[in-house]
TrEMBL record:
<keyword id="KW-1003">Cell membrane</keyword>
<keyword id="KW-1133">Transmembrane helix</keyword>
<keyword id="KW-0472">Membrane</keyword>
<protein>
    <submittedName>
        <fullName>Sugar ABC transporter permease</fullName>
    </submittedName>
</protein>
<keyword id="KW-0813">Transport</keyword>
<feature type="transmembrane region" description="Helical">
    <location>
        <begin position="131"/>
        <end position="151"/>
    </location>
</feature>
<feature type="transmembrane region" description="Helical">
    <location>
        <begin position="282"/>
        <end position="304"/>
    </location>
</feature>
<feature type="transmembrane region" description="Helical">
    <location>
        <begin position="86"/>
        <end position="119"/>
    </location>
</feature>
<comment type="similarity">
    <text>Belongs to the binding-protein-dependent transport system permease family.</text>
</comment>
<dbReference type="InterPro" id="IPR000515">
    <property type="entry name" value="MetI-like"/>
</dbReference>
<keyword id="KW-0812">Transmembrane</keyword>
<dbReference type="Pfam" id="PF00528">
    <property type="entry name" value="BPD_transp_1"/>
</dbReference>
<feature type="transmembrane region" description="Helical">
    <location>
        <begin position="30"/>
        <end position="51"/>
    </location>
</feature>
<feature type="transmembrane region" description="Helical">
    <location>
        <begin position="171"/>
        <end position="189"/>
    </location>
</feature>
<feature type="region of interest" description="Disordered">
    <location>
        <begin position="1"/>
        <end position="20"/>
    </location>
</feature>
<dbReference type="InterPro" id="IPR035906">
    <property type="entry name" value="MetI-like_sf"/>
</dbReference>
<feature type="domain" description="ABC transmembrane type-1">
    <location>
        <begin position="90"/>
        <end position="303"/>
    </location>
</feature>
Length: 317
């Protein structure tokens, strides 16, 4: 008898070496057929502005004096990255992003649990009601929140006068801290429904068999949440956090309507607007936009690498 044992041919996984079965190949082809046209159109629509912004960022170009534009290479990027205004705007943007995404993730998960465990007849009603804030246009939402917190016409000061520190003369847009609080509150109110629906889709993919097995083993609700629910919806959490982070990092409407960048609330998007539209510095404004784009790309790469989600496994391949 031979001293070694050969692995049975039937036990070899054909996908272990990177191969794909015919069903997976067919699904991928169908996905490309369905998404391909839209992908090509989006690429054509977005490629030109990106290339044009990169090109303009290499010139000292003012819209009021186009004849005297000159090539400066990476000079505009040097001016921006050595200016404290850029780093202040970047810090404000990062603060808004971290606060809003963190709060929305917790609230959205709570809403997703409520919708998942609601009675079957109430689920469509709950989803419709929860989506109402997300359906409101961001500019309209920002004006509504500005009106509510206004010293002259708002009702927040009178309704919450019992809260320590809140009086009839509290100016919510008079300091950086209070202004950022209102901006974050408006963003959280509007986009939490988006997070909740994405997390609801992830909760629906958690196998009931695992939950029942954990209950039989005596696991508490928190233990089931930490060891069963969250690991099995990791892909949904990554998608929700990634999409919302990229959206929050480009926040503009709320800042523009509520404070116009005053009191240290200027974000990176608003800085690009101010340089390009108000000061007609096309070169510097384009450089800010390119840096914002690169920041978003870097955030995407870090999230995808940090979560380490196997999307093929999440699809059941």
């Amino acid at each position: 008898m031979s001293a070694t044992l050969d692995r049975p041919t039937s036990a070899v996984d054909p996908t272990r070496d990177g191969g794909l079965n015919e069903k997976t190949r067919a699904e991928r082809r169908l996905g490309w057929y369905l998404a391909g046209p839209a992908f090509v159109v989006m690429l054509l629509v977005t490629a030109y502005p990106i290339v044009q912004a990169v090109y303009d960022s290499l010139f000292d170009y003012r819209l009021t004096d186009p004849e005297n534009s000159s090539f400066v290479g990476l000079g505009n990027y040097g001016v921006i990255l050595t200016d404290s205004v850029w780093w202040t705007s970047f810090g404000v943007t990062a603060f808004i992003t971290v606060v809003t995404v963190a709060v929305e993730l917790v609230l959205g998960f709570g809403l997703a649990l409520v919708m998942l465990n609601a009675l079957r007849g109430l689920r469509p009603v709950l989803r419709t009601v929860i989506l109402i804030p997300y359906a409101v246009i961001t500019v309209v939402s920002a004006f509504a929140w500005q009106f509510a917190f206004s010293v002259d016409s708002g009702f927040v000061n009178s309704w919450f006068s019992w809260v320590p520190g809140v009086t009839a003369d509290t100016d919510w847009f008079g300091t950086q801290g209070l202004s950022l609080f209102v901006i974050c509150l408006a963003e959280i109110w509007k986009t939490t429904p988006f997070i909740s629906l994405l997390l609801l889709a992830g909760l629906a993919q958690v196998p009931d068999v695992l939950q029942e097995a954990a209950k039989v083993d005596g696991a508490t609700w928190f233990q089931r949440l930490r060891r069963v629910t969250l690991p099995n919806m990791k892909a949904a959490i990554m998608v929700a956090v990634l999409f919302r982070t990229l959206d929050a990092f480009r926040v503009f409407d709320s800042v523009f309507v509520m404070t116009a960048g005053a009191n240290g609330t200027e974000t990176v998007s608003f800085l690009a607007y101010r340089q390009t539209i108000e000061r007609v510095e096309i070169g510097l404004g384009s450089a800010v936009s390119v840096l914002l784009f690169l920041s978003v790309v870097l955030i995407s790469a870090l999230f995808i690498k940090g979560f380490k989600v196997d999307l093929s496994q999440a699809r059941g391949e």
